[in-house]
Amino acid sequence: MKKIIYLDNAATTPVDAVVLKKMLPYFSEKYGNPSSIHRLGQETFQAIEESRRQVADFLNCSPEEIYFTGSATESDNLAIWGIIEKIISLGSAKPHLIISAIEHKAVLEICHKLVERKMAELTVLPINEEGLIELTSLEKAIKKNTRLVAVMYANSEIGTVQPIARIGRLIQNINKKRKEPIYFYTDAVQAANYLDCRVDNLGVDGLSFSGHKIYGPKGISAFYLRKGTPITPMIIGGGHEKGLRSGTENVPGIVGLGAAVERIRKSGGDGAQIKKLRDKLITGILRDIPNARFNGSLKERLPNNAHFSFKGAEGESIIMELSQRGICASTGSACASHSLKPSDILLALGLSHEEAHCSVRLTLGKQTKPSDIDYVLEILPGIIERLRKISGR
Asked: What is d(CA 227, CA 200) in angstroms, rounded to the nearest whole number?
């Protein structure tokens, strides 16, 4: 079998061996329902609470502020819909939301749904040529009825890192002069593996991340909600997760998520070595491929992300050519990769429809080796040249 070089770590990561080892007993040995009061049930209940403590230590918050959901999409929906729904139920004026133009679909779509149902007003902040929002634009957008700001920590497509801590301080200062506070939420799915996610440093009221982006399992997300933040549950039932998210807990997934954050906390993450390889990849592509465009900020960027547009070569064709040679990459967010529409994020960045369709995302992981980068740099220029000749551009 041809060796696989996996450069799609922003889409998902392989489960770490230590994480998997921690999870396995909870499939067939320690399988009790955590709500049961017998020995097996209490064993799994304690495992959940240990994982909750591990996540709380990672975020530097109280375990009581941590909730487990089935995905970061669910966490995004719960945070935004749940907070707005509760604010409305308390009799406030129609709330105003502010988000960035490059939020994940899970945030964009739930906000548009709130507007469609006339439950909220919405302002979408533009980004500059590096993919960053301007704090002055955010401050100008705030109105008397602004109640929620949602800005993703790091973008899944172009890897740009937003100034979350500065936004948090800005909102905290504004709240000192307001009767009704503005709440601040960040989707930290891409950030958790590489950036400081301590919520006291960031000044956020809500934050979420996902297991499968940090070498943990799929189907599990951690959702932080600052104590006292108003919220209404979206899933009603047996009152699990302190009534905020009913449904029998995914014990193996929760245990795996706890083990995954422990790996980050103890190792300090894998960013430094990955960044060296990523920079080598960027330098080589810009040197060896004419008219290659690097998208997003180089400075304010995740250490594993490289994103390019190759005019005259369709992104999907590039991905298929790479795949035939054992290299797994993508054209952008895995949640939208089956769509033929150009990426909203790339259009917001200022790319033309053609440039957006000619884009490729390469995201490295802890398993990436220097020889992997050498191989990509060896074959990618020829692929781009051949596809450009076919297209006549």
From this structure: 12
